[in-house]
Design a protein that fits this description.
Elements lengths: L10 H12 L7 E3 L1 H8 L3 H13 L3 E5 L4 E5 L1 H18 L4 E9 L4 H6 L2 H11 L8 E5 L2 H11 L3 E3 L2 E3 L2 E3 L2 E8 L2 E8 L7 E5 L4 H5 L6 E7 L5
Antiparallel strand pairs: 1-3, 2-3, 4-5, 4-12, 5-11, 6-9, 7-8, 9-10, 9-12, 10-11
Helix pairs in contact: 1-3, 2-3, 4-7
Amino acid sequence: MWSHSSVLYNPHEIQVLKHLAMDGAMEDFIPVSSGELGRELGLSQQTASRRILDLLDKGLIQRELGARRQLIRLTEDGMKALQTEYADYVSILEVRDRVSLRGTVVSGLGEGRYYIEQNGYREQFRRLLDMDPFVGTLNIRLAGEDRGKVQLLRRSTGIPMRGFTQGSRTFGAVKAFNALLGDIRCAVVMPQRSHHMDTIEIISEHELRKLLDIHDGDVVELHVILRTPI
């Protein structure tokens, strides 16, 4: 829970991924002909076929060979590539100091409680967030464009918190963002290195489930402050 590498995707990859996604390849396997793909993108059949093989080699798509056409679906990494592109456009076209995220309340694995109990984190929560959080996190699973917005958080400085060593265990650095869930002050806590793209963790002085009477499956909207005033 509590690593993410900066991956650069070339425009040709994004062009094909976007086309496949618009045809439904984010949800399921779709039939794809190299010839048709080439005509629709203004490419030769050979170039289109090579682009598909490149995406396959990089793990951005899955392919099954059908009787007449190949079947293609975007992988998780392929969807992340489009989410990164989406975040780029949002940051260019929508200059903002905060972002709204909608997602579904889900149960975690209990890891949040363990990490929040560590004094190395709690001291920083108190000092940097002016918050003595309830022991536990509220987990929100994002979907669609809201998953892409997570990239905005990853690229923002937020409020950095140092990692530390306790006994034989090393705890990684995290960053936090002040936020509002309804009118309740809270914070998003995000590991500096994380593979998770679709779930965010929220801490608060309150037990948010009880205070807001929310349960697994409920949809909530969170307003996250990207820039902390100086």
